[in-house]
From TrEMBL, chain A:
Keywords: Signal, Sugar transport, Transport. The keyword Glycoprotein does not apply. The keyword ATP-binding does not apply. It holds the Pfam family SBP_bac_8. InterPro entries: Maltose/Cyclodextrin-bd, SBP. Residues 1-26 form the signal peptide. This is Sugar ABC transporter substrate-binding protein. PANTHER family: MALTOSE-BINDING PERIPLASMIC PROTEIN, MALTOSE_MALTODEXTRIN-BINDING PERIPLASMIC PROTEIN. CDD domains: PBP2_Maltose_binding_like (cd13586). Belongs to the bacterial solute-binding protein 1 family.
TrEMBL record, chain B:
This is Maltose/maltodextrin transport system permease protein. Residues 308-529 form the ABC transmembrane type-1 domain. Signal peptide: none annotated. Residues 1-10 have a biased composition (Acidic residues). It comes from the Bacteria. It comes from Agromyces marinus.
Length: 413, 540
């Protein structure tokens, strides 16, 4: 029996890997398994993004103590959580509950992987924008926990007072001796999310609304306001004032603000930390409007979804509505992520922080980002059209082509 | 020379073993470990078997009989191979074959399978899942209806809801029995919690019978249009009506508000007569539909042509430029007259040592039109549109890929050059050949014999070089004339990625079909190229 030891080791390793691989293809009862009946109270598996695992531990323990249901919190990479959820729920391997963002709703619902959620009377306790965002085709699917929107960060050492309008903002910055007083993330493919407040100021939302939310058959992009916005955008681009520049991406915008070469930065709460760390005296302002109408940014609402294949739906509903929906847990989550809680009472408590209060004030004007699948057809043309307008293409023609392309893509589905 | 060697061996076999041969056999025996190797083998196989037993238990519990059979079969085979005396070749082959099956064959077969299905957004699960999801989503809470406090009760296995209306009135009903007023035997805080003849479920019982409770819908009255009370969490109930009705026998969905009938027409979703589908649908096998769409889709046909041309150009130019730069540098640093060659060689390897997606991102930053290092520092503030002009962007992609790729070519050329004997050089010098002639007619052909297969592999790699495209330009600048989000530097693989995976609609079936087509293209080119390189070997 002359067998080389190395080959034996390798064979052993391979066989181990192979068996494990095959077993995990089929077994691995990690999710909503059939343990509901056998274990004492069953197990709820909850996927959350890795940063918020600790924030949920308290609620999970409290729930286990109260009901005997084990709650297993699994930290997941935020970038892959949606695709994993969509792919694993139909196989029965997915979790009972996942954390996510409201604009996933169209996709999740089209794939049939989320179950409706009844908030009951507690729906009135949430910020209206959060409930709007959690509703898809008239049905609530998400327990909201945080509302996120962009606002203008102002370097209060450079410019002491908030700007009253877009032109006033540029003038104030120039008066402080800055060449490029206002920066906003764009990049070669544009960034419609960050330009949306200006677009709404011209009265041009993407979709109209009906009583079930956004109406995919009512494309408002090409309305008169849309053309006006495009013309204005062209005037602020490469061939005009140069306020907008597609060479400015997220990092360049950030660096300009941190270096003090820009006094105003249109960005989200996720960037406030680095501005404060750099020792800047930061104030949060509403987005200065170019028209006099309110400049409403998109609101992104984060929350929890229940899997349509969960075998513990009762516990999942109970856990979300009666535990995650409490002020304490919403405040814990707020501390982990530093974005405004969706529960009104928690939002009020959190607003004692001036930064959060500033974002909350802007958020009051925000509109939920459309979650309808038709929005996917908008994103793929929207930014590129705005980028070419900024770079000097004819605004009216480009905007009309954008509208036509989007309409064609929606019709082609 | 080799023939004589073989004859020696055969001669030795025929004669009885000499002393030396016996000693050699003993040494070989000791080297292979003897008893120790048997112990290690037993231990390793024991571990493998233990894991297999665990896997079998898990699989048996989840009733995956097919996979279980495979695991049993593979484990038995592995044991037999390593205990048998007659399976020496299999002992060496088994690990590789298992790896091959698990990581290559399985992936290929699965990709092939997906290419024949409509797997993607809206066609994600089974028909049963689609039906239950549609039914759940079609439930609507009756507008302005109150919250009812409910208690789940049980009578001989039949679940019922003990409902307390906001006015304090209690009533009881089951799936078959509409709500009827009852006198509760126990009331806590205004909520009826028990009634004679029924057992009240504790919360843990409620959790344990979740599936029954999610199915529990107690009709509000004899009229089904009044809706039914359901409880999502076992303690509060709401009045729901449904606007979809599923007829299992006919396999149709009826929209109760409009009267439209949606039936299963074999397209993987409930479809009305006018062609409107309600999603989610389910996965079905669609035959060659995806392949047909991949080549005939009118939105894709135009871009597909120039993307394919650019893909070939990109792969060929990348291989050519990296090879010749690498070869040139290898020759230069192979020259004995060069001082400090070792340090230069290390410097050459640096681009190779940095992960390519990271360097591509850094390059993207350096090539920024107004703020990039190249325009600002090297060209003194010029605004050269490195990444935003269609032709400049193509050039930039090639430059960055050259930077990323030449160290590899440098390494293999250095190795290949050193294996060419020095006397070739001397002989040609004696014959009066110039340095260029020596290189062109002697060294390069000799070099190509060993390097050509690597060049073909490099072509195949660059054909699918997703990293550099995605990280540097993301396919941009966008072709605003195209109806899909394709750009001027997109190669096939990045275009497929955009078509199939960006936006909110995924189409895994189409993507799998494309990847199979790309695989066939690369395979055919490689086979032809390998055949042709054989002629190179005839030079010797």
């Amino acid at each position: 029996m002359r067998v080389n030891r190395k080959s034996l080791l390798a064979a052993g390793a391979v066989a181990v890997v192979a068996t494990l691989g095959l077993a995990s293809c089929a077994g691995g009862d990690s999710g909503s398994g059939d343990n509901g009946a056998s274990a004492e109270g069953g197990t709820l598996t909850v996927w959350v993004d890795a940063e918020r695992v600790d924030a949920l531990k308290g609620a999970a323990d409290a729930y286990t103590e109260e009901t005997g249901v084990e709650v297993e919190i699994v930290g997941k990479d935020n970038a892959t959580i949606k695709d994993d959820f969509i792919q694993q729920v139909p196989t029965g391997e997915g979790p009972d509950i996942t954390m996510g963002a409201h604009d996933w709703l169209g996709e999740l619902s089209t794939n049939g992987v989320v179950a409706p959620l009844e908030l009951g009377d507690s729906a009135a306790d949430y910020l209206p924008v959060a409930i709007d965002a959690a509703t898809y085709e008239g049905t609530v699917y998400m327990l909201p926990y945080a509302v996120e929107n962009i606002a203008v960060l102002r370097n209060a050492d450079l410019v002491a007072e908030a700007a009253t309008s877009f032109d006033d903002m540029i003038a104030k910055g120039k008066a402080a001796g800055l060449d490029q007083p206002f920066v906003v993330e764009q990049g070669a493919e544009g960034n419609p999310y960050h330009l949306y407040p200006f677009q709404t100021a011209f009265g041009a939302p993407v979709f109209g609304t009906n009583d079930e939310g956004y109406d995919p058959t009512d494309l408002q992009l090409g309305s008169e306001g849309g053309i006006e916005f495009a013309t204005w955008l062209g005037g602020q681009g490469k061939t005009g004032t140069g306020v907008f520049n597609t060479d400015i991406d997220g990092n360049i915008a950030k660096q300009a603000f941190l270096d003090g070469t820009a006094a105003f930065w249109l960005t989200g709460p996720w960037n406030v930390g680095s501005a404060l760390d750099a020792g800047l005296n930061v104030a949060i302002d509403t987005v200065p409007s170019p028209t006099g109408e309110a400049a409403s940014p998109f609101a992104g609402v984060k929350g929890f979804f229940v899997s349509s294949e969960s075998e513990n739906k009762v516990a999942a509903n109970d856990f979300l509505v009666n535990y995650i929906g409490t002020e304490d847990v919403q405040l814990d989550l707020f501390e982990a992520g530093n974005i405004l809680p969706a529960l009104s009472a928690a939002a009020e408590t959190a607003s004692s922080d001036p930064i959060i209060e500033g974002f909350a004030a802007v958020g009051a004007e925000a509109v939920p980002m459309p979650a309808i699948p038709a929005m996917g057809s908008v994103w793929q043309y929207w930014g590129i059209a705005e980028a070419s307008i900024i770079n000097g293409e004819d605004p009216t023609a480009t905007w009309e082509k954008l509208t036509a392309d989007v309409q064609a893509a929606i019709d082609a589905r | 020379m080799s023939t004589t060697f073989d004859e020696d061996v055969e001669a030795e076999k025929a004669s009885p073993p000499t002393k030396r041969q016996k000693r050699a056999a003993r040494i070989a025996d000791a080297a292979s470990g003897g008893i120790r190797s048997i112990l290690v083998k037993l231990l390793l196989l024991g571990i493998v078997d233990a894991i297999a037993v665990y896997a079998i238990l898990v699989l048996a519990l989840s009733q995956e009989w097919l996979v279980l059979a495979v695991v049993v079969g593979v484990t038995a085979l592995v044991n037999w191979i390593y205990f048998s005396r007659r399976t020496l070749p299999a002992k060496y082959l088994t690990p590789g074959v298992i790896f091959l099956v698990l990581f290559q064959v399985f992936v290929l077969v699965y990709t092939g399978y997906v290419a024949f299905t409509n797997y993607g957004t809206g066609h994600n699960g089974t028909k049963e899942q689609a039906v239950s999801s549609l039914m759940a989503a079609s439930l609507e809470r009756v507008p302005d209806s109150p919250t009812y406090q409910v208690t789940v009760v049980d009578q001989l296995g039949t679940l019922g809801l003990l409902v307390t209306a906001p006015d304090g009135e209690a009533s009881l009903g089951t799936n078959d029995q509409p709500l009827q007023q009852v006198d509760p035997s126990d009331v806590e805080n205004g909520k009826a919690v028990a009634v004679d003849g029924w057992t009240t479920l504790q919360f843990s019982d409620v959790i344990a019978r979740t599936s029954e409770i999610t199915e529990l819908a107690v009709p509000f009255s004899d009229d089904p249009n009044d809706g039914a009370i359901r409880t999502p969490d076992g303690s509060s109930g709401y009045l729901y009506t449904s606007n979809l009705e599923y007829d299992e026998a006919a396999g149709t969905m009826t929209d109760l508000s409009t009267g439209t009938v949606y039936s299963d027409t074999g397209t993987g979703a409930f479809t009305a007569e006018d062609g409107t589908e309600i999603l989610p649908g389910w996965q079905i096998t669609v035959g060659f539909d995806n392949f047909v769409r991949a080549v005939t889709d009118s939105r894709l046909a135009g871009p597909l042509v120039y993307v394919t041309l650019w893909t070939f150009a990109f792969a060929l130019i990348s291989v050519a430029t990296t090879f010749f730069l690498g070869l040139f540098l290898a020759i230069v640093f192979n020259d004995m007259r060069m001082k400090g060659r070792r340090y230069y060689r290390v410097a050459m390897i640096i681009p190779y040592a940095i992960p390519s997606f990271l360097s591509a991102l850094v390059w993207a930053g350096m090539m920024n039109e107004s703020f990039g290092f190249i325009n600002q520092v090297i060209f003194g503030g010029a605004s050269i549109p490195w990444l935003t002009d269609p032709w400049m962007a193509k050039l930039s992609v090639l430059i960055v890929n050259l930077w990323l790729g030449f160290p590899y070519m440098f390494l293999i050329c250095t190795g290949a050059l050193q294996s060419i004997p020095e006397d070739v050089n001397e002989a040609s010098t004696v014959d009066g050949a110039s340095a260029w002639q020596t290189f062109r007619h002697i060294k390069l052909p000799l070099l190509l014999v060993s390097v050509a297969p690597l060049l073909i592999a490099s072509f195949a790699f660059n054909f699918n070089n997703f990293n550099v495209i995605y990280m540097l330009t993301n396919g941009g600048p966008r072709d605003t004339g195209a109806p899909i989000p394709v750009g001027f530097t997109d190669i096939l693989i990045s275009m497929v990625y955009k078509v199939a995976f960006t936006g909110q609609t995924r189409d895994y079936g189409l993507a799998a079909a494309y990847s199979i087509i790309i695989f066939i293209v690369v395979a055919v080119i490689s086979i032809i190229a390998f055949r042709r390189t054989k002629s190179l070997e005839e030079i010797n």
